[in-house]
Predict the structure of guanosine-3',5'-bis(diphosphate) 3'-diphosphatase.
Amino acid sequence: MAGIDALADRLSAYLGNDQVNLVRRAYFYAEQAHDGQRRRSGEAYVTHPLAVASILADMHMDHQSLMAAMLHDVIEDTGIAKEALNAQFGETVAELVDGVSKLTQMNFETKAEAQAENFQKMAMAMARDIRVILVKLADRLHNMRTLDAMPHEKSRRIAKETLEIYAPIANRLGMHNMRVEFEDLGFKAMHPMRSERIRAAVRRARGNRKEIVAKIEESIQVCLQHEGMEGEVIGREKHLYSIYQKMRGKRKAFNEIMDVYAFRIIVDKVDTCYRVLGAVHNLYKPLPGRFKDYIAIPKANGYQSLHTTLFGMHGVPIEIQIRTREMEEMANNGIAAHWLYKSNEDEAPKGNHARARQWVKGVLELQQRAGNSLEFIESVKIDLFPDEVYVFTPKGRIMELPKGSTAVDFAYAVHTDVGNTCIACRINRRLAPLSQALESGSTVEIVTAPGARPNPAWLNFVVTGKARTHIRHALKQQRRSESISLGERLLNKVLASFDTNLEKIAPERVQAVLGEYRQEVIEDLLEDIGLGNRMAYVVARRLVAESGDDTLPSSEGPLAIRGTEGLVMSYAKCCTPIPGDPIVGYLSAGKGMVVHMENCRNIVDIRHNPEKCIQLNWAKDVTGEFNVELRVELEHQRGLIALLASSVNAADGNIEKISMDERDGRISVVQLVVSVHDRVHLARVIKKLRALKGVMRITRVRA
């Protein structure tokens, strides 16, 4: 009873009497519901909901969140239905409890798949009411504080999950205090020895540092008084997990990290922040390139502050953060501070709250686009660790992106269509590679072209979840349409030998065959044929099988390929066919058609199997560039590579790759990969190379 009275006292400082009584009512309801249940530590179960509500009270959360905290385990653990809570405490509280309950069923013990599925539920619940995640975070925090009662294996698993998901979410919502506690508690459970050693080292170092910290603090205070400014100066301690991360990530010794002294100066208003900055820059020399203005450009999670690093006395580095009281509250409690400062229930969310909403909206969009839940959680995890860079659009709008973002990430952040049709970029008005990592302060301009498509290679360098998800989605769509188109051509080619085509076959016959193959629409069947999962030969036989004639006449002649078939047509690396070479198509399950040369050794066994291979020829309007490997034997001479390059260039060819090995001191063997249009073009290139002095032999390499 004392527990709820003490909490009610604290709540009455910022909530009305009626609201405090509602929280009390929720407590008594939970106490009754959990009657007889005990925690693993032996205490009555109701101490847990009370502790969760107490954590939320520290953040000055509203009464509905506190009621949901009291009741958050009722649906799951006591068999009381959501409807009963709805009748007792209203729809909002019942929805919050239901949202948190769904999250509590996040059973991470099973597989990554289950973890991902549950994380998707969390995104949905958060989208309806952001307070769901705040109650869940408080619930997790109390569980982490009482982790010692758990068996070792389970506590390690919970700690890992906290460090991977919950600490980053707290960070994303700007809740610094909670993030730090999550990280330190998680670190202690995951690596008890390392944690204890660093803790002991920090205790020892603190004794030695006391004097210097006091001196620096005093000199800053004197400086502020001299300038006639009010400000509170606080020495800042680095938390254990961040020390460990820096030691591991930056390979720094403990002493190097502890040599930096950190202070926070808290002032009354924004204007004073900049005046204090000027004063401390006068007091100690600033370190170039280490000043950051997060007041003008807040971090993605709403964090605002001025950061600067100074050379203090005896050259010790001093890190200083300058912010207002409100910014301090926002920095520590993040989105929860929104409830502390809001004056009107109905006003539109702004600042931190709006940012959090924006983030949740982004998470939902990722969920809708992701192929499966694992892909979704991979994207969200990337999104949860943002170290931002700030870049400008050509019109001067600021875009914030995670560190390491490229122009393609920027394009997708502007708009999905801009990303999908992006072909080049200008960084600070100069053409730059799309894969170049962006730096803060750059102006980025995207060049688009109608009809352009995402390149699969982009997946190797994009870092934002949004870009990755949209590229995958667009490639799937592109692959599907190309597979359908190829499948239709393959099927019609076989049907032509029956003097028919797909359009002439009766719809009921098509439906019957679709039923046999358990496909819903003809496009699905054509896609399967295009991807090589079903043989056009067999499907055609089923479509014309009414007559009872099961034999298939010989094919009507080869299928023409244009070189623009896209993702479902690839060229074998073993024999590198080019237009003009006699070719044959091998249908590879899931990959579509692989084009080989007719005499390629790799398909000699299946060459005449009509189910696996199909006769092809090159269309008259074939386009594109094709790679060919040449082996050139010639006398060793100076400037050899330059000579070969200029000869290939003179024949309008392009060298993609070059490597050289000497056979003996006199003769060199050069392997060239050259891109050409067709056999005629290749002949021109070889002719130019033969004309070089000392060339003894040129052969086209086939594996």
In short: The longest helix spans residues 192-226.
